[in-house]
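Throughout this chapter, every protein is written as a compact record of paired, labelled lines. An example of such a record is reproduced below:
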Amino acid sequence: MSLFDLTGKVVLITGSSRGIGLASAIACAEQGAKVVISSRKQDACDAAAADINARFGEGTAIAVAANISDKAGLQALVDATRAAFGRIDVLVCNAASNPYYGPQEGIADEQFRKILDNNIVSNHWLITMVAPEMKERNEGSIVIVSSIGGLRGSTVIGAYCISKAADMQLARNLAHEYGPHGIRVNCIAPGLIKTDFARALWEDEAAAAQRNATTPLRRIGEPDEIAGAVVYLASRASAFMTGQTMVIDGGVTI
């Protein structure tokens, strides 16, 4: 059996109708997992799940829309996953929000709270919802998609960076808490990836060229280049890894 084999595993991924989340769902399905596609819009989830089912077989994916700001909606997502597949082996907290771009001093209270609630508190909610069954089986993997913003300062996405640093600490805390129960909790910290979410950071050609010039690999990343890390953290290949943050950024932070 391959170290990366996910046959029989159920992987729930938020923010998975496009970008890093969708690439991760496809990569997990390639390794034999059942995947749950979730984002705010049901039609987008349906389209992504249909594509995965067409590629890997009917019943590989289901689509359940949920807004990460809605605790009851997240519980419904977890309940629907269990109803369809019977269990949740891997949780990937990928969805996030960043409604403000500019100096920290200019952010409105409601924008700051939305970032903290959606990027930290919602992860806490979901993890709390899935951890009990993982504890019963003495096995599970939780992956939080953070950002290299959590390792660096910023003059334009400061609140987002604060939230992503908090995600790294959330993983460290929960690694201690859940480790005795066989549950691993890790983060992935991508650099700039070509997704709609990060469009403001890469669509300006001059700014992108400047960024590429200071990146050792001289380019920004693609969603598929993060998906492999999700498979690694979901599989037994990472069985002795917990509480860590994997930086995948083309070398920017070195």
The chain is about 45% helix and 15% strand. Strands lie at 10-14, 34-38, 61-63, 90-93, 140-145, 183-190, 245-248.
